[in-house]
Amino acid sequence: MRTSPPRLRRTENFLTAVHHGKKEEKASVERRRLHVLKALKKLHIEADEAPVVAVLGSGGGLRAHIACLGVLSEMKEQGLLDAVTYLAGVSGSTWAISSLYTSDGDMEAVEADLRHQFNRQEWDLAKSLQKTIQAARSENYSLTDFWAYLVISKQTRELPESHLSNMKKPVEEGTLPYPIFAAIDNDLQPSWQEAKAQETWFEFTPHHAGFPALGAYVSITHFGSKFKKGRLVRTHPERDLSFLRGLWGSALGNTEVNRNYIFDQLRNLLSPRDLWRRTVAGVKNTGRLIFAPLLRLQQSLQRERPALEDEGGEPNYNWLTEMLENWTRTFLEKQEQPDEDPESKGSVSDFLDFMRKTGICASKWEWGTTHNFLYKHGGIRDKTMSSRKHLHLVDAGLAINTPFPLVLPPTREVDLILSFDFSAGDPFETIRATTDYCRRHKIPFPHVEEAKLDLWSKAPASCYILKGETGPVVMHFPLFNTDACGDDIEAWSDTYDTFKLADTYTLDVVMSLLELAKMNVSENKKNILGEMRNAAMLYYPKRYAQSCSLV
User: Fold this and answer.
1) 391 lies in some domain
2) Which residues form the PLA2c domain (predicted)?
3) For the chain, how many structural domains are there in total?
4) What is the pLDDT of residues 323-346, one digit of tens each?
5) Which of 112, 220, 345, 547 is the most core-located residue (most Cβ within 10 A)?
6) Which residues does the annotation mark as catalytic?
7) CATH assignment of the domain containing 74
8) CA dihedral defined by 166, 172, 176, 180, rounded to 10 degrees?
């Protein structure tokens, strides 16, 4: 009998090592099996025990978000989604997957919202900025907060205030698949680069957040709260989905692209003509109120300079110099008088504090800062995990751009994986990376010769079925393929570049991508049903051998 490793779970205000952890997930999956069996019957697949099917969505920014919505919508329409036990995503796919749950599984409503958002090009800057300024009051503010509320919310046209724990009801009732959202521990990147360390991977579900390789988890409602030696020291509110979407999707471009974008946004926010003044509406004499704090902001950032240079960074304050010049000119032109309203000064002070913290985080390149729930925990042998006061969690696409490592552990007993790849460039890079990861850790995964992958990548078809001697069957679906795009794959890819801003996405552009993703499902329904039927045969081979002989 296989035993699971010790896992950490919360008992009142204490984390203790126990066996057979994640009981909530196990119970939810068991209830889901009943719904899967009914769905299989409707699809004319008879089974007394439901095979475990996992659907994976890769990263790819807004392209992945829209395409994943198309995949989920078409799978729902074809009756396939009801036969799925797990849904897992990286980066942009997590935005789509979370939308499925915030809409209670109503994909028609999700599509209607998508059309509305991109038809009217709506985005509430003032509300997003207010959320960011509020987040900046936290001791663990990082670029992830800025990214979540001012970048991802603009890309998706959404600012969800619900929480992962709000997804519990449909998940526990088994009416929707069990969702898994991927991240990685950025502090462990050296270990990943050297040995593809399993401990690098971090997962979020409606019940827990933690490290699968360690079996170490904390209740999702206490993710971000402060722990020491396993005890809850200080409770912090559960982070909203907007923040988590920013954390899961924090690698839309390379470091230089992201850095330039963030500094551009900082410059824009401090432009004398920018809409940021909505957050301090009614404040008089803004020039005089801003000028002195800006000088303090520059001094504060300059004080950080020696420490930053010790880390090998060379901070660039040209953006701040430009701001000071702009505000100096505005101040001199208007010759404004001091405003003694303390409330006005407070709102400006909050704004400038947000700017100061963002500038420092951008110079340090600090992302995903949260309290380490394993800090000084005696049950963790690895001191790297228990000695850090903070974790820095980032987009899992920086490791592998699809969440294979989270559904391959034997405890999840996955029989069939539907891998929808929305990546830029080579659609088989995720297969290569996962093959290497599994080889290093002796995890069963279908092996494909490198020469064959190279050949496939030159003119990818819409579906590949990969089978090994053991382990799950993998169906891999490249988004841009010759079946749907013909010889225009490069043109499609250019149109939907990963870091292309939502402002460039017209409704027609959005709907074309949505329909393409749907086509990849509908055109391969027969293949998917065939592998679902094969997975069901694993449990009762004799019965299926007899029924197949009659066909």
Assistant:
1) no
2) 7-551
3) 2
4) 445 544 544 444 444 444 444 444
5) 220
6) 91, 395
7) 3.40.1090.10
8) 70
